[in-house]
Amino acid sequence: MIKLSLAASAACFALWSSAALGAEKPDLALYGRLPHFEGVTISPDGSKLALILTDGEERVLAVRKLDGEMLGGVRASKAKLRGVLWAGEDHVVMLSSQTADVHGLEGPAREYLMAVDFNLLTRKQTLLLRSQENSMNVVLDWPMIRVIDGQAIAFVEGVHFMENQGVDTLFRINLKDGATRMLDGGARMNADGWLVDAAGEPVAQSLYDGKKGRWSLRMKIASTWKTIDEADSPMGSYGLSGFGRDGKSVLVWRTDDKNNSILREYRGPDDYEDLPGDLDLTGLLHDPDNLSLLGGYTLKGDDLVYTFFDPTSQKAWNSVTKAFEGDRVSLESWSKNRRRVVVLVDSAVDGPAYALIDLDTKKASWLGVVYRDLGAEAVSPVRSIKYKAADGLEITGYLTLPKGRDPKNLPLIVLPHGGPEGRDTPGFDWWSQALASRGYAVLQPNFRGSEGFGWDFVKAGFGEWGKKMQTDLSDGVRDLAKQGIIDPKRVCIVGASYGGYAALAGATLDRGVYRCAVSVAGPSDLKKMLLSVREAHNGEMSAAQRYWLRFMGAEGIKDPDLAALSPARLADKVEIPVLLIHGKDDTVVRYDQSQAMADALKKAGKPVAFVTLESEDHWLSRGATRLKMLTETVAFVEKHNPPDP
């Protein structure tokens, strides 16, 4: 059995217990600032770690040996560092993004992803895809790293212009000397994904016609590219999901005739196999050496379950999770031989932290906590709940209860997730924990339309935007009130993205439930939102537009029913205080959505506060503005729904 050494456990406890114990309520910065420690990846030979640290407001790439000796680091400056990956033993590739409006490109500002190689030997940084003729220096996906003849090669999807149109194109980059060349690889105007095998050969390509909603798969068969499969997929491309069990076949998550999700393994023309449905995999695990499919993972109930095809691998993983019994353990990174493993351990008592497992020595050691100074006294308990919606549909979710308070007659914050086809999970959630630290119970319902509960549950949300998807939330409030856990007269609703829309709908469409509403980057005018989606796709119909219309239950942008679901068109119905918070650089839900709501409320003579987050995007990527959002939200709900009666 793997056990944590006493010294490692003591060191981790010292980190976790360093929060000030004398404060009546924990400092909101414990939750609202960016994670101190994240993105931990181990080098192929298992001797080094690359990780992302937050130093004040700035994110930093740090590279060190397992014994702690620093090998180098890079300050991300104003770039939003999104992740890192190893390329051989001497290179670390950093991915960052920034919001930009590129001169010469049609449409609104977009969030662009870039990749930079950090050479550990020379300490130099090199932007990938720099100075490529008729190409942008942005990447469209994570690079595929292959080591060929001892050289680290990055295969990168970039944008190359053909006939005045940007085309998803595959590039090959030798990280040692930066030599870059564009691969033809059967390029097509509608390409949206590639697979490169362990030998460095492009072998599969996904294509998607967004206007027609048509997907196709092409594979390289005996040096010739052939179309292997085609299908209508109006809601988006099926894409590619890596290699199959032999490391050569190609995997695609797609749907069958009944819209059930299936994992199909393609070997060639008319040669495919659907993996057994009882595998029930949400995510896939591939061998870091030969790229073959090893198994996968899924959330079953509240448990994150990993399934390996190989019994020996399954036994090894079971020993890892047993070392952290009672905690939620997820695989973050592993060495090439899979004997050294980095895991994220999400403790219901202490919060999340990273650990390193050595399967050969059967030892585990703590690497660091995700949220610095977050002690057990600042983590509130979370319980799973179930309740019935008004029409009888079972809704599940999570209830965070304020630590140290009797769970009776509590004030409540309803915190719906975004998506809307997202979901909440039982892991540590900084936003709900922050609200619970103020004395509130926090309800996070997985309303109809949420993913992870089967296709029928997702389908139940179609056409229910602002309708049953909304009353699923207030049905949860009524259930908690019936149990005596919360005071139904002291409830507010807070959310971001679709959750922000739900907050505004709680003030306009499902009135009488909430005392106040906080919308962070929430849509308020659905027609205007759809027009911005069309603008982003150069005025053409797109999978994104079809996706939104399906949930909204509208026939098109001109459908008059959209007005009846748009809070900005219903501002005169608002009877509670509303707080709007929006990032100025949001490229998903445009800033003008909150501006339109603010203007409508002011015109109707209704109470509204509007907080602008300068240089912030849809994901609250910057520490200062994320903390500002949290501070403003807490102050607002404390004013209009005091935690103490």
UniProtKB/TrEMBL annotation:
The keyword Glycosyltransferase does not apply. Residues 427-640 form the Peptidase S9 prolyl oligopeptidase catalytic domain. It comes from the Bacteria. The keyword Lipid biosynthesis does not apply. Residues 1-22 form the signal peptide. One of its GO terms (molecular function) is serine-type endopeptidase activity. One of its GO terms (biological process) is proteolysis. Keywords: Hydrolase, Signal. It holds the Pfam family Peptidase_S9. InterPro entries: AB_hydrolase_fold (IPR029058), Peptidase_S9_cat (IPR001375). PANTHER family: DIPEPTIDYL PEPTIDASE FAMILY MEMBER 6, SERINE PEPTIDASE S9 FAMILY MEMBER. This is Peptidase S9. It comes from Caulobacter segnis. The lineage of its organism: Bacteria, Pseudomonadati, Pseudomonadota, Alphaproteobacteria, Caulobacterales.
